[in-house]
Design a protein that fits this description.
Layout: E1 3-6, H1 14-25, E2 30-32, E3 39-43, H2 47-57, E4 66-68, H3 72-76, H4 84-93, E5 98-103, H5 110-113, E6 118-122, H6 127-136, E7 140-141, H7 156-163, E8 169-172, E9 183-186, E10 193-196, H8 202-209, E11 213-214, E12 238-243, H9 246-262, E13 267-272, H10 276-280, E14 286-291, H11 296-312, E15 317-321, H12 329-339, E16 344-346
Parallel strand pairs: 1-8, 2-8, 4-6, 5-9, 10-11, 12-15, 12-16, 13-14, 13-15
Antiparallel strand pairs: 2-3, 3-7, 4-7, 5-6, 9-10
Helix pairs in contact: 1-6
Bound molecules: threonylcarbamoyladenylate (TXA) and magnesium ion (MG).
Length: 347
């Protein structure tokens, strides 16, 4: 039995926060909204509770969890050293969609860190998440609240569809504002390294830290964020990412719609507002507008909903329009590349 309650995202009802915090302290799981995506939370200091997260999601054991805190006091027990760079990042970007990887203390259970010597920490900006952590009085370990391999949930209904019957409570705070996950930044090396692009851009980090690099593992090398090796965000249909000039993308997509239909396949389109009118007239089985090409925050906010709709409406073929990699576009393109299994066509 899963209890899904509607909670006020700006002013969370105390009643629900108390009930959820109680469950967390008892070692149970609660799904909660954050500003990026929904998280599947457990007491980060309780190894058994955290093990349950892996079971419920079907998550590989070697993929560590992000630990969410509500204040800097909580961080002290978790990390060996609160470095000057970490302090800078926290001052500038916390609460917010930035996760910091630092050397961990022995207080952090091995199951949380996936056996690594480091721990990933983030202070979320969402009032529900912050209130829940405060009320529980413990840091909350939380991966995205989807089944492994599905797009991250950006609405309470997504969590419900994935996890109903598997966890006691879902706090439904509506739609997440950012829509893609946090940026994971490794601060344990010489140069700060982005392990996963996300809600805080490389450009923003560079303003504060100076040089920042992106971890680009080669095919025979493991990525430093274990989760990045899995094909996350994979829709059931075959997704192709198209990159190039608008008129070429529209022509290619139109061809593919026609070809797909001649093979009796359902064809779904994920595109920008600007391309939508021309593609609409090609009669795809699903046309999902991600947002304006000039508003990457809009595209980020809609991306996972679009991917989920393609699944729900059984699209066999999915064609996604690429966007500029500037700013938040870098995280969007990272997710689309993964969803495509690197089936990328330049036109
Ligand atoms: O926005 C977010 O980050 C959301 C919300 C709920 O906070 N959480 C989220 O968690 O996306 P998850 O578990 O889906 O992704 C965590 C990523 C994975 O790629 C994981 O491998 C990486 O962070 N990670 C966690 N701990 C790490 C560590 N100690 N070193 C390197 N990578 C780590
Ligand atoms: Mg995830």
């Amino acid at each position: 039995q899963t209890k899904r309650v509607t909670i006020n995202a700006q002013h969370p009802e105390t009643e629900w926060i108390k009930e959820a915090a109680q469950l967390i302290r008892e070692g149970q799981l609660v799904a909660l909204p954050t500003e990026t995506v929904y998280g599947l939370g457990a007491n980060a200091m309780d190894a058994n509770a955290c093990k349950e997260i892996f079971k419920v999601k079907g998550r590989p054991q070697d993929n560590p969890l992000i630990v969410h805190v509500s204040d800097l006091e909580m961080v002290k027990r978790l990390v060996e050293e609160w470095t000057p760079q970490a302090a800078l990042c926290a001052e500038k970007f916390w609460p917010g969609p930035l996760t910091l990887v630092l050397e961990k203390t022995a207080f952090v259970p091995d199951v949380v860190s996936g056996g690594l010597g480091t721990v990933a920490i983030r202070m979320p900006k969402h009032p529900v998440a912050l209130e829940l952590i405060k009320e529980a009085g413990v840091p909350i370990a939380a991966p995205s609240a989807n089944l492994s391999g599905k797009p991250s949930p950006t609405q309470g209904i997504h969590v419900w569809k994935d996890l109903k019957g598997k966890i006691p409570m879902i706090l439904d705070g509506g739609t997440c504002s950012v829509g893609v996950e946090s940026t994971v930044l490794d601060l344990t090396g010489e140069v700060p390294t982005i392990l996963r692009p996300g809600g805080i851009t490389k450009e923003e980090l560079e303003e504060v830290l100076g040089e920042v690099v992106v971890d680009h593992p080669s095919p025979n090398q493991a990525p430093k964020a274990p989760g990045m090796k899995y094909r996350h965000y994979a829709p059931k249909g075959d997704l192709t990412l198209l990159i190039g000039e608008r008129k070429n993308i529209i022509r290619k997509m139109s061809d593919e719609i026609r070809k797909g239909h001649s093979r009796l396949k359902k064809v779904g389109i994920l595109c920008t507002l600007e391309s939508a009118p021309d593609l609409h007239s090609q009669l795809p089985d699903l046309l999902f507008v991600l947002g304006s090409e000039n508003a990457p925050e809009e595209v980020a906010g809609n991306l996972y909903e679009g991917l989920r709709l393609c699944d729900e409406q059984d699209m066999d073929i999915i064609l996604a329009e690429g966007v500029s990699e500037k700013g938040l576009g870098f995280a969007i393109m990272n997710r689309l590349q993964k969803a495509s299994g690197h089936r990328i066509v330049r036109v």
